[in-house]
Design goal:
- The chain is built from two helices and no strands.
- By secondary structure, it is an all-alpha fold.
- α1 runs antiparallel to α2.
- The protein is elongated.
Length: 59
């Protein structure tokens, strides 16, 4: 059980990261001329997605 504790903790932090990314996306959508910010968000989403894959592969 303690073995999965880290997965739960990391998963919670990834959920927080996803929420923050979503908020940023909403703000950026108001400013259509922000390709650099869009790229940053895509990179952040990719990192979160990869982290989830790592967690799931360690089950």
């Amino acid at each position: 059980m303690a073995n999965n504790l880290w997965k739960d903790q990391v998963g919670q932090q990834l959920q927080v990261a996803n929420q923050q990314i979503t908020l940023c996306q909403r703000e950026i959508q108001h400013d259509m001329d922000s390709p650099k910010e869009q790229l940053f968000l895509q990179n952040a989403l990719g990192a979160v997605s990869k982290a989830w894959q790592i967690i799931e592969s360690n089950d």
